[in-house]
Automatic annotation (TrEMBL):
Residues 39-111 form the J domain. PANTHER family: CO-CHAPERONE PROTEIN DJLA (PTHR24074). It comes from Caldiarchaeum subterraneum. Pfam families: DnaJ (PF00226). Gene3D superfamilies: DnaJ domain (1.10.287.110). This is J domain-containing protein.
């Protein structure tokens, strides 16, 4: 193969440089778009100068729309995971906006005696998990419901909807519980619609343990 002339070598180098420049430009554009899409106000679809009450209302609506609990029971794990990721992104965006607005989240004050019924029901659920999955699920849901109502009342949020899911959403919106804790507490309600639970004995046992861990984390945060 004959050697390239200086002009051909220059043309080849120019072509390579042009391709590299185009690739860099595309990567830069994609990166800029990703950064823009992660801007918290864009994630929620609101404007930076919108009133906080409007932003909160939008956030609440999006949380309800994308929570995995709204999916049918036979939804695929992939779809459920997409909803979970979207929920985490929404929660992160809302927390960031609160930080930008310098809003200090209100924290509940919970007495140890207020959580005693929750702990008692969870212990009953743990004891029943091996032999009576149905009873374990009933006790676990009662514990979760009592915990959610106790935290909700401690925040002074009484007077709103008494529906379990709405109370739970209020707690996450007000930064009382994390997205992960929200998901476990919502799962308590989902499990109650799975039948007697005997065919899911191992899952029930694992769930009760997971709910116990969530309870302990919340207890450590808010017991005064």
């Amino acid at each position: 193969m004959p050697p390239m002339t200086p002009l051909e070598a220059f043309a080849l180098a120019l072509t390579g440089a042009t391709a590299a420049l185009i690739a860099y430009s595309l990567q830069r554009t994609r990166s800029d778009r990703n950064r823009a899409s992660e801007w918290p106000f864009s994630v929620l679809g609101v404007n930076p100068d919108d009133p906080l009450d409007e932003i909160k209302k939008t956030y609440r609506s999006l949380v309800k729309r994308y929570h995995p609990d709204t999916l049918p029971q036979d939804a695929s794990p992939q779809v459920r995971r997409l909803y979970e990721e979207r929920l985490i992104k929404l929660n992160t965006a809302y927390k960031t906006i609160l930080s930008i607005r310098e809003v200090e989240p209100k924290k509940p004050t919970v007495g140890e005696e207020m959580l005693a019924p929750v702990e008692e029901m969870l212990r009953l659920a743990k004891n029943a998990a091996e032999n009576d999955a149905r009873k374990a699920l009933e006790n676990a849901y009662t514990a979760a419901e009592t915990l959610v109502k106790t935290l909700h009342n401690s925040m002074g949020l009484v007077g709103r909807s008494s529906h379990y899911y709405d109370l739970l959403t209020d707690l996450m919106i007000n930064d009382v519980i994390t997205v992960e804790e929200f998901e476990v507490l919502a799962e308590a309600r989902r499990y109650t619609s799975m039948g007697n639970g005997r065919e899911h004995a191992t899952n029930v046992h694992n769930f009760v343990e997971k709910l116990w861990e969530v309870y302990l984390k919340i207890r450590r945060r808010y017991i005064r």
